Amino acid sequence: MDDRRRLERPVTAGTTATPASARHDVTAATHTYATLDVPVAGGRLRVGVWDPVGPPAPGPGARPDGGARPAHDAVPTVLAVHGITASHRAWPAVVAALPGVRVVAPDLRGRGRSNTLPGPYGMGAHADDLAAVLDALGVESVVALGHSMGAFVSVVLAHRHPGRVSRLVLVDGGIPLPPPAGLPPDADHDEVLRALLGPAVERLERTFADREEYRGFWRAHPAFASAWDEPWADVVAGYVDYDLVGEAPALRPASSGAAVSADSLELYEGGPLAEALAGDHPLDVPLVLLRAPRGLLDEPEALYSPEHLAAWRARLPGLRTRDVAGINHYTIIMSPPGVEAVAGETLQALAAVTSDGPGPASDEEVTA
């Protein structure tokens, strides 16, 4: 199904891929799908690649007459970076909404099929891994699309590796988080981690007898209650199934607890993120942040308050923010309104790169 290829050298434009016809893959009509193992520090990083089929999208190398697809290096490419306990299999619904666009999506170090890669972790290490992926694929510059922690990694990639990211589309992440509400000032890291991620951390400590038990956990998750409905129930099922590793009856989530714990330290002010956004030489790449108005458990308290983002817009003139109504932190990439908004902003970013235009104004846009 995956055409899993081991890379001993950078991928060239002539590399073939397998049709995306698996049961859980909604991208079959728009993309082929393959996985690659890219050499990085300490081992190999698993990367999913969706190559477009059919007419090319407007973008670098696209022919105005809709003619034959250009070579891979001329196809518009998006680097899609997942969240703190997720994998590249979080992205198929968004990929299906990006016909004509190549989507490259890694399993970050410590997650998915990259979960045996050792530390050090942190946004800088992940950014270096992503630069290695772009090198291996022969891609010079991309629009980076990051969800949750993937947005933080994308910001640091753009700053740490100048020229590799032309535009940033941040999905409910990428701007330093406010401290979790209700914690005492002297709270230790474990208390902060559990206040921020709560059930996600507890899930990583559990084992499951079989795939159906794990699916049952996610069906009962308040943020995913509607995500199992059509049109993308198979996307959620594929994402959940891929997350399991080990053998029954002791299957476990793939994400490394050590990686999650270490990475969570860098989601607040400080470290590479602070240097990227507020250092002596801050990031100068245009960025848009799509905010989910509901949180990790579908609660009405969002990850970011409007006031918090307003303060950051004042500090970052190039930042534009937008609310996407009716979704939570997870369903923003797995529900019709979320996918429409994320794909639309991504296509807009690609068009801006092609036209060398300034992009949209930095005023906040709110979808009612």
Number of helices: 11
| SSE run | EEEEEHEHEHEHHHHEEHHEHEHE
Largest sheet: 11 strands, mixed
What oligomeric state is this? single chain
Rounded to the nearest angstrom, the distance between the terminal CA atoms is 41 Å
- The portion of residues forming beta strands comes to 15-25%
Q: Helicity, in percent?
A: 25-40%
Number of strands: 13
List descriptors.
single chain; 368 residues; alpha/beta; eleven-stranded mixed β-sheet; two-stranded antiparallel sheet; 13 strands; 30% helix; 18% strand; disordered N terminus; disordered C terminus
Structure description:
The longest helix has 20 residues. The termini are far apart. By secondary structure, this protein is an alpha/beta fold. Strands 1, 2, 3, 4, 5, 6, 7, 8, 11, 12 and 13 form an eleven-stranded mixed β-sheet that branches. The chain has a two-stranded antiparallel sheet with strand order 9-10. It is built from eleven helices and 13 strands.
